[in-house]
Amino acid sequence: MYTLFGSLLTCGAMIGSITSGPIADFIGRKGPSAVPFAGLKGFNQVKVTSAKMELSITRPDDWHLHLRDGNLLEMVVPHSAQHFGRAIVMPNLKPPITTTAAAVAYRESILKGLPANSDFTPLMTLYLTDSTSPTEIKLARESGVIYAVKLYPAGATTNSQDGVTDLFGKCLPVLEEMIKHNMPLLVHGEVTNPEVDIFDREKVFIETVLRPLVQKYPQLKVVMEHITTMDAVKFIESCTEGSIAATVTPQHLVLNRNSLFQGGLQPHNYCLPVLKREIHRQAIVSAVTSGSKQYFLGTDSAPHERQKKECSCGCAGIYNAPVALSIYAKVFEEAGALDKLEAFTSFNGPDFYGLPRNTSKIKLRKTPWRVPESFSYAAGHIVPMFAGEMLDWLPSDV
């Protein structure tokens, strides 16, 4: 069902037996630029043994996560808690999380669904509407558990029907209050005008909404979530570091729009923003593996019951929480940028939000493992990204 771009790398019995690919190129460098695996910048521990390579990195955070609610929440939250220390939790439930009181209650539901002894911390968000008040922003900041406000253009994606219809006409007092409290605006960056081609919705949003917003409020911290185009990369890099950033998903790093149609319509590859051309995928890979601090991990992991994906009008969303770290590691490995992986997964996000970095570690071991075909819960089954396929990197606790 899925196809990863690029060839898989294998680690030989000894360093000297690795003769091709990015790892061999890295090891084979001579002179002042040569850095042995044991001293790779950014890793606390990198080693090659007789059968595997292991990376020990600071525990990552997920800066864009959908946990849903009810039985589905109870099924999916352990997958994120297993690998991530914290997560920015999206507020697009039914009804949406539009008040501080609702966000606090939702947080309690998440905490109750965690495995015993888990120290996973949900970072809550508010759902911005045309009627959100500045007072609600003040209450949110004072709560100590709400860290951002989410902008969904009305009708842009799952449960976005209550989103904003007129950002500049109805939401300016709220944005000004957010600046006072240094609260980031998280943006689903797509216009919803039906006359705009679906593959151009992000580009048009940047020019008609996001660029004017940043020009009007340069002090506002903005995260452009799940970027999908070279247009987004160019925009992010034209902005001041520390005020504008972007999250990047696993799917937009390894899949292009061909993946929607290979061998027939592939509903489990359908997400919003929709997958784009290969040139856009390559631009995003280059951006996140460059070492820029403006990009950080945000899975946009979005579970839907199988029958809601495999139907005449399937839901948008890819459930990638169980495989995300494996895919990110593969992308950085193939780009010859494993030394930059830890900053992307574990440093850039908390630095942008003004939060401390995690102190615990996780291990990424280069060993093949098979992704489950599905996960069962009371209402049905969830199909994960790369269901039934083999992946190269296996995350685990140190």
TrEMBL record:
The keyword Hydrolase applies. Its EC number is 3.5.2.3. One of its GO terms (biological process) is pyrimidine nucleotide biosynthetic process. Keywords: Hydrolase, Metal-binding, Pyrimidine biosynthesis, Zinc. It catalyses: (S)-dihydroorotate + H2O = N-carbamoyl-L-aspartate + H(+). CDD domains: DHOase (cd01294). Pathway: Pyrimidine metabolism; UMP biosynthesis via de novo pathway; (S)-dihydroorotate from bicarbonate: step 3/3. One of its GO terms (cellular component) is chloroplast. SUPFAM superfamilies: Metallo-dependent hydrolases. Residues 62-365 form the Amidohydrolase-related domain. It comes from the Eukaryota. PROSITE patterns: DIHYDROOROTASE_1, DIHYDROOROTASE_2. InterPro entries: Amidohydro-rel, DHOdimr, Dihydroorotase_CS, Metal_Hydrolase. Pfam families: Amidohydro_1. One of its GO terms (molecular function) is metal ion binding. Belongs to the metallo-dependent hydrolases superfamily. DHOase family. Class II DHOase subfamily. This is Dihydroorotase, mitochondrial. It comes from Oldenlandia corymbosa var. corymbosa.
